């Protein structure tokens, strides 16, 4: 039996949920490989790797450098909260959201999958309750999270018999800096034009949301207890999600809580 400590890989580990997960894992004595374009908050207990998850060559090199190490947990958490309406959001916004929220996540899963199989590990992907909700003002974010969830459903079936658990983590509001997209250079070209109800709501609501460190501890505890694939961590999101599906099945029009069609 291997005497190596448990190993977790966390993307988007430099802030928000990813940073909180990294700290919670360290508190449990887990060895953490952390990836983020800004690793300045991470201390020397972490194997920090500073690059953008869109850098496929860097991610491939990192995965290959640890080919002999089984991975117990992969937290594919990196994502961007790109706002904007469907027609007015610049093409750059759509591309940015797609590359980070979908393509980079799938690449991460593909490159680390052999490590997960070896470790009979768990792949936890931060999706969002938004993937199954309906509201205006967050076209790129909602669409890419929905696409990611659809791909993960396919992976769930494919993973049967592999020994790897697949979990689509669908949180509601968590107190992070997800709305502070101005810290990224890409935000200059991807900024939506005009007022945006989603951004206005999020800036206010996120300040009162569950702290990220408390959420991260709940996630690890949930994995210990046997988390489901569709993992809704915030019960308050369910009425919104159920409302959207009721409208899809019975009304034929999108459900929206901002008073306008999505």
Kindly summarize this structure in a few lines.
The chain has helices at 16-27, 56-65, 91-119, 139-158, 187-190, 197-205, 212-225, 238-251; strands spanning 7-11, 31-36, 47-50, 73-76, 122-126, 165-170, 174-175, 210-211, 230-232.
What report would you give on this structure?
This is NADP-dependent 3-hydroxy acid dehydrogenase YdfG. Belongs to the short-chain dehydrogenases/reductases (SDR) family. Keywords: NADP, Oxidoreductase. One of its GO terms (molecular function) is oxidoreductase activity. The protein is an alpha/beta fold and 262 residues long. It has one domain (7-251): Rossmann fold, CATH 3.40.50. It is 43% helix and 14% strand. It has eight helices and nine strands. The chain has helices spanning 16-27, 56-65, 91-119, 139-158, 187-190, 197-205, 212-225, 238-251; strands at 7-11, 31-36, 47-50, 73-76, 122-126, 165-170, 174-175, 210-211, 230-232. A seven-stranded parallel β-sheet has the order 3-2-1-4-5-6-9, sandwiched between helices. Strands 7-8 form a two-stranded parallel sheet. Helix 2 runs parallel beside helix 3 (91-119). The protein is globular and about 55 Å long. 39% of the residues are buried.
């Amino acid at each position: 039996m291997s005497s190596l400590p448990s190993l977790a890989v966390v993307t988007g580990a430099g802030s928000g949920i990813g940073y909180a997960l990294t700290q919670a894992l360290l508190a449990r004595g887990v060895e953490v490989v952390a990836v983020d374009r800004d690793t300045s908050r991470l201390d020397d207990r972490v194997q920090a790797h500073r690059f953008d998850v869109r850098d496929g060559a860097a991610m491939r090199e990192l995965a290959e450098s640890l080919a002999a190490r089984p991975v117990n947990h992969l937290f594919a958490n990196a994502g961007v909260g790109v706002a904007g309406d469907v027609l007015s959001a610049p093409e750059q916004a759509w591309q940015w959201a797609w590359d980070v929220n979908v393509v980079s996540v799938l690449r991460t899963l593909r490159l680390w999958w052999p490590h997960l199989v070896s470790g009979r590990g768990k792949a936890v992907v931060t999706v969002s309750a938004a993937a199954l909700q309906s509201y205006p003002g967050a076209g790129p974010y909602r669409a890419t999270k929905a696409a990611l969830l659809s791909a993960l459903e396919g992976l769930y079936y494919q993973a049967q018999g592999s020994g790897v658990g697949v979990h689509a983590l669908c949180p509601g509001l968590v107190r992070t800096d997800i709305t502070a997209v101005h810290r990224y250079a890409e935000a200059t070209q991807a900024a939506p034009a005009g007022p945006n109800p989603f951004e206005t709501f999020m800036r206010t609501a996120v300040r009162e949301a569950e702290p990220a460190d408390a959420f991260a501890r709940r996630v690890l505890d949930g994995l210990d207890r046997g988390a489901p694939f569709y993992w809704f961590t915030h019960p308050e999101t369910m009425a919104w999600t159920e409302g959207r599906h009721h409208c899809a099945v019975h009304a034929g029009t999108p459900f929206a809580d901002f008073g306008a069609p999505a």
